[in-house]
Amino acid sequence: MSPEPTIALLAGVVLGASAHRAGLCMVKAVAEVLTSRKAHFIWSFVKASLWTAAILGWAAMSGLNIEFVQRRFKRRPFGAASSLASERD
């Protein structure tokens, strides 16, 4: 078994836990704008995006080969999940 799913799962858990602890949520950000007319949460999302772009840009200019793998999944027609459930019975 390849290590990618394990690493992705671990990264998702860490990101989810840190976002939950910090209270990061776009709904909360929009509510902040509507109630207090300030955009601190939205600005935090923008800063995180800029940091990510800067780090990936630096890595690309440094010659690091970062591959984003796109995995293809078979698409099932609508309602295929229910037909699979009836096949198990």
Layout of helices and strands, plus pairs?
Blueprint: H1 4-22, H2 26-36, H3 40-61, H4 80-88
Number of discrete helical segments: 4
**Ends apart, CA distance between termini:** 30 Å
The gyration radius over C-alpha positions equals 20 Å
* Share of residues in strands: under 5%
Mean pLDDT: 77
Number of domains: 1
- What is the number of strand segments? 0
**Quaternary state of the chains:** single chain
Which class do the helix and strand fractions yield? mainly alpha
Shape call: extended
What is the helix fraction of residues, given as a range?
55-70%
Helix/strand order:
HHHH
How is the main sheet built? none
pLDDT under 50 segments (min length 5)?
none
Concise structural overview:
By secondary structure, this protein is mainly alpha-helical. It has four helices and no strands. The radius of gyration is 20 Å and the shape is extended.
Question: How does this structure look, described?
Answer:
This protein has 89 residues and is an all-alpha fold. It has one domain. Helix content is 69%, strand content 0%. The chain contains 4 helices and no strands. The longest helix is centred in the middle third of the chain and has 22 residues. 1% of the residues are buried.
